[in-house]
Structures are given as C-alpha cells and as structure tokens.
UniProtKB/TrEMBL annotation:
Part of the 30S ribosomal subunit. Contacts proteins S4 and S8. Residues 1-59, 200-220 are annotated as: Disordered. PANTHER family: MITOCHONDRIAL RIBOSOMAL PROTEIN S5. One of its GO terms (biological process) is ribosome biogenesis. Belongs to the universal ribosomal protein uS5 family. Residues 28-37 have a biased composition (Gly residues). With S4 and S12 plays an important role in translational accuracy. Located at the back of the 30S subunit body where it stabilizes the conformation of the head with respect to the body. GO terms for cellular component: cytoplasm; small ribosomal subunit. Residues 13-25 have a biased composition (Low complexity). This is Small ribosomal subunit protein uS5. It comes from Sphingomonas rhizophila.
C-alpha cells in the first residue's frame, strides 16, 4: 500500500517538472525575442530589405532580362568536388539602353542575380533610327571575336544568332543584320557586340558636334533640300 501511494506522488511531480521547464527555459527563448536575437534578426532582415529595395529603383521602367549563358565549374577539395556557377545576363529597356554583366556563386539563382545587378549598372545608351534599327553599320572586336552589325530596312527582323540576338532584343532593335566570326565564346561575342554599338552615332549628335544642321548633313547623301529637311524632322535622336 505504501508503494501504491508513492507512485502517484512521483507521477504528480513529473507534470510539475515539465511545467517548470518552460519557465526555466526562458534563457534559450530569450535570444530569439531578446536583445541578442534582435541583433541577429535585425542584421539578417536588414540585408533582405536592402536587396528588396534595389529593384524599386527601376520601378519606373520595365527591364528585359536575357540569360545568355550559364557555366558550371568544379573544384576538387579534400572532401570531394565543390561546384560553382557563372552566369552571363543581358539587360535592356527595349528603348535604346542595354548592358551586360556576369556573376559567380555557389548556386544558380544567386549567380543570375549578381549578373543582373552588374548588367543594370553597366547599361549604355545606343541611338536608334526610327526606334527600330541602327543608324549606320559598325564593327566590333574583342579578343578573337569580330562582329559586324548592319542597318536593315523595315521587315528584315533580327538576323543574329545566340548571344547577339539577346542583345538586340533587349535593346529594342527590330531590324538588323549581323555576322560574327573568329569565336563562339558568348563572353567575347557580347563584348564585341557592345564595342560595335558604342561607336553608333546619330545625325543629331554629329550635327551638334560640328555646329551644323541635321538637314545639311542629310543633304550630302543625295537628298534635295526639301527631302533633307523632312528627313531631319523625322530624326528623333
């Protein structure tokens, strides 16, 4: 009978111990809601808020993002192989501004985000004729790659392959003829393409640099005065 009376006492003491454990365990819960946890969560949350604010700078314009190439590399370490990824991204607004960037990370999404951020910082403006094609032909050279870009009439479309097509689509060019020789490396092709685009000039910028009228420059191309003035008024950039 004595043993039967002691057993309920032990059983009653167990719930008291379990109920007291959470009160005594406020120390482990304290860092999450206390001062230490606030610092850790604050630092982590702060970085997330800054990353979220970056796209808000471009809320006024819609950017076109093109993933051109992803390269996977591996490094042999003591425990095995360590994989990494490199991404090449082209970004443009479809209205004459474009840029490219590359990023490296252990994961593909992080590499793409790094490349996109780098491309947004390196965007350049290219003057377009009638908002659809280039003003004149151009040549670009980088490394072993040589690129030729040529203006084209309406309805031609984008005659370009691989990485070069991504550049013109993000740039907003609708009619262009291109040729790439010497290399198929997407990095060199992209760089050579942007070297050719950086040399593009518009009649308005040339006229301002030389202190002349746009109609005077267009008149040298075989147009009469009336046609040159009409063409000069049509030039928007």
């Amino acid at each position: 009978m004595a043993d039967e009376n002691e057993t309920p006492q032990v059983a009653d003491a167990a719930p008291e111990a379990t109920e007291a454990a959470p009160t005594e365990g406020r120390g482990p819960r304290g860092p999450r809601g206390g001062r230490g946890g606030g610092n850790r969560d604050g630092r982590g949350g702060g970085r997330g808020r800054r990353d979220d604010r970056r796209p808000r700078e471009d809320d006024g314009e819609e950017l076109i993002e093109k993933l051109v190439h992803i390269n996977r590399v591996s490094k042999t370490v003591k425990g095995g192989k360590r994989f990494g990824f490199a991404a090449l991204v082209v970004v443009g607004d479809g209205k004459g501004r474009a840029g490219f960037g590359h990023g490296k990370a252990r994961e593909v999404p992080e590499a793409i985000s790094k490349a996109t951020a780098a491309a947004k910082k390196a965007m350049v403006r290219v003057p377009l004729k009638d908002g659809r094609t280039l003003h004149h032909d151009g040549l670009g050279h980088f490394g072993a790659g040589r690129v030729t870009v040529r203006t084209a009439p309406a309805g031609t479309g984008i005659i370009a392959g691989g990485p070069m097509r991504a550049v013109f689509e993000s740039l907003g060019v609708a009619d262009v003829v291109t040729k790439s020789v010497g290399t198929s490396n997407p990095y060199n092709m992209i760089r050579a393409t942007f070297e050719a685009l950086k040399d593009q000039t518009s009649p308005r910028s040339v006229a301002q640099r030389r202190g002349k009228k746009v109609s005077d420059l267009l008149g040298r191309g075989g147009l009469n005065q009336a046609e040159a003035e009409a063409a000069a008024e049509a030039v928007t950039e």
